[in-house]
Fold this sequence. Notes:
Mean pLDDT: 91
Strand content: 15-25%
Distance between the termini: 58 Å
Helix content: 40-55%
Low-confidence stretches: none
Radius of gyration: 22 Å
Number of strands: 12
Structural class: alpha/beta
Strand order of the largest sheet: 4-3-5-12-6
Amino acid sequence: MDLEVRHLRALCAIADRGSLHRAARELGMSQPSLTTQLRRIENSLGGQLFTRERTGCRPTPLGRTVLSRARPLIAGMQDLVTDAKAAAALAAGPRLRIGSTASRALPGWLRRLRARLPGTETSLHMDVSANALLRLVAAGQLDVAFVHEVEGCPLRVPEGLSVRVLVEREPQSVTLAADHPAAGNPVVKLADLADDRWMVDPTVDGEWDGMRRMLQSAGLNPPVLHGDYLTAFSLVASGEVVTVCQPTSRPRPDTVIRPLAGDPLGVRLFLAGRAGVDESDLDVAYEELAVAYAELA
Length: 297
């Protein structure tokens, strides 16, 4: 078997994350598949690269040698790809590739950017995973990304990214059915939701951990359903569940959005771009995003 760049990335992920399970999640593959790939790599090189321990994986002396050679190769390959894409983009004309998690500010932001940059092609890439978007910016596949960081669950911001904070802490709200007993309250206490089922999208980075900590701090241990938020809002309307939401969310006729007493859960909103690359585009994107977000108030 010939070693490829993807194999070297897998080895670095295992070393950085310290376990096959966490590395597989980062690489977007199953743990059995990564285990099989590691075994094939070790067979190809003729020796064990990692020792498996109860606490995770540790590089062997051979593994450390391979990793010391692999990291510069990966960085060099990434630089090659980034520079080539930058050259291609320059030849094709100005463009701004935007990534974002879900936000009602997006339509106004894109509209303002098109007006501010009339000769620039603007594209949008949506993803529920803020970490995935940040990796795309670092890889040169996006120019900027607007992301939400759940309190207590810091995102993995790659080196070389410049961060502009839009909102340092935005308290999250709760969505209830319009006929929920607590819907008439201007502010809802978590204790008022003690008998409710909750719903969360576990694919949104930090969302499940943040909500679980919030409920545990309030002494609650309710049943929790996992699913996407489009489904969640439909179930909220029928009274099946309640769920956290952004305060800028727009309620449906059969739901209400209320702030939570004590603001027990918050998120940080920020825009990230590659430092030193098209800083003027990052400035413009941040300025127009700030205005678009303020319009939601």
